[in-house]
Amino acid sequence: MANLTINEKNEIIDRYQANPEQALNILVDLQFASTDGYIDQKTAQLVAKRVGVTETRIYELISFYAILKEKTQARYVLKICNSAPCRFSGEPLVSRSLKEILGVNENEMTADGLFLYHGIPCVGACAQTPFIKIKDRVFPNLTAQQIVQLISDLRAGRYPAL
Asked: Which residues bind [2Fe-2S] cluster (predicted)?
């Protein structure tokens, strides 16, 4: 999380009054605020100290919740639903298209470090299948052509907030 200053990290922690019951929300906000896309050791130590829990407790949260990462992530982590309703409603189009466009399998980062895609449990967007979720934004009802366009737009930096 080299791109976040200690003050920026503390501001996020202060948003939750350094409440230990909000440690998960703090970690998620820190990860989303960072372009690195993961919680590094120094940040985990800072959160533990500020909210008054052990570092072990912070790593329990990081390792339990799939949304949290402790290793460098691709610039864009594309999430595709792997629940049964989505599998029968068009999700295979997304995984096939991403494999073809990006040239990597699920859970593999592209050589340029820009993309990684992986399955996630149901996010309650079954009516919008096939979709791709990036951070908290859902790109719904995708066609193969729209997936190509989305990847092109991401490469061009057309979604700076993601």
From this structure: 81, 86, 122, 126
* pLDDT at residue 110, as a whole number: 96
Residues 54 and 96 in one domain: no
Residues 82 and 140 in one domain: yes
74 is in an annotated binding site: no
161 in a domain, yes or no?
no
Domain count, the chain: 2
Q: Note the pLDDT tens digit of each residue in 47-86.
A: 999 999 999 999 999 999 988 988 888 889 999 998 888 8
Check whether 81 is labelled as a binding-site residue: yes
Q: Which helix (H) or strand (E) holds 15?
A: helix 6-15
pTM: 0.68
Domain with 126 in it: what CATH number? 3.40.30.10
Rounded distance between C-alpha atoms, residue 10 and residue 66, angstroms: 24
The answer to the question of whether 122 is labelled as a binding residue is: yes
Beta bridge partners of 115: 76
In a domain, 92, yes or no: yes
Both tokens assigned to 13: 């922690």
